[in-house]
DNA sequence: TTTTTATATGCTAATATAGGAATATAGTAA
DNA sequence: TTACTATATTCCTATATTAGCATATAAAAA
């Protein structure tokens, strides 16, 4: 694989590496399509900030936009992106389970020390 | 979803948002398991830098390590991470196709202008 | 035309990240 | 013990990213 391809992969993941942008993807995945104003309202984040995050996602090729009158509607361009989250969720669940197991172990040790 | 969960998703994607770390994942996905020295040698990146990237991937829960004597072997903890790349590849291919279509269109316009 | 509405962009300060060089740690061997 | 090997960490500097505010653009309405 060429360095350019690695950069392209990295830029897609970088676009997804911000909690606000994850929220935007989740919102669009749920509602299908939304204008900037509704996204801003729904997430309670001011319009310029939402606009900037949307342009980052768009530049990465993850979402696309369509102008309709005054409004710009955004939607997910690559539906398989939802699978990212299913996998990421497995990682997160594994972490939570590991932390839980660890705290149980600590409780056991405390009992033994008594 | 709580803000903490969004942060966890974001940190997983952030861990993948660097070309060197993509290369490491690809390497581990292919070879199964590798020590730091072999990763460093294979990617021609110096050891402290590889070590830092590995710790970022490990903290995100994407890879795990096992110490064996002097060496530390790393392997992928979540096999589904490979699906990330399959999807990301679709995004990349779509971009490449779009660019190609655009350049064809420009050629058409140039012909008409003659 | 002017005004209003929806979105995008420019600027700045604070914060985060990267790589390189040097150093620290931990296990092995002599 | 000392020497060696494989990893990890620290410090430093350069660069990148963020949110917030102000401003610019673009379409619709008056």
From TrEMBL, chains A, B:
<keyword id="KW-0238">DNA-binding</keyword>
<dbReference type="InterPro" id="IPR051011">
    <property type="entry name" value="Metal_resp_trans_reg"/>
</dbReference>
<keyword id="KW-0804">Transcription</keyword>
<dbReference type="Pfam" id="PF01022">
    <property type="entry name" value="HTH_5"/>
</dbReference>
<dbReference type="InterPro" id="IPR001845">
    <property type="entry name" value="HTH_ArsR_DNA-bd_dom"/>
</dbReference>
<keyword id="KW-0805">Transcription regulation</keyword>
<dbReference type="GO" id="GO:0003700">
    <property type="term" value="F:DNA-binding transcription factor activity"/>
</dbReference>
<dbReference type="InterPro" id="IPR036388">
    <property type="entry name" value="WH-like_DNA-bd_sf"/>
</dbReference>
<dbReference type="GO" id="GO:0003677">
    <property type="term" value="F:DNA binding"/>
</dbReference>
<protein>
    <submittedName>
        <fullName>Transcriptional regulator, ArsR family</fullName>
    </submittedName>
</protein>
<feature type="domain" description="HTH arsR-type">
    <location>
        <begin position="1"/>
        <end position="96"/>
    </location>
</feature>
<dbReference type="InterPro" id="IPR011991">
    <property type="entry name" value="ArsR-like_HTH"/>
</dbReference>
<dbReference type="InterPro" id="IPR036390">
    <property type="entry name" value="WH_DNA-bd_sf"/>
</dbReference>
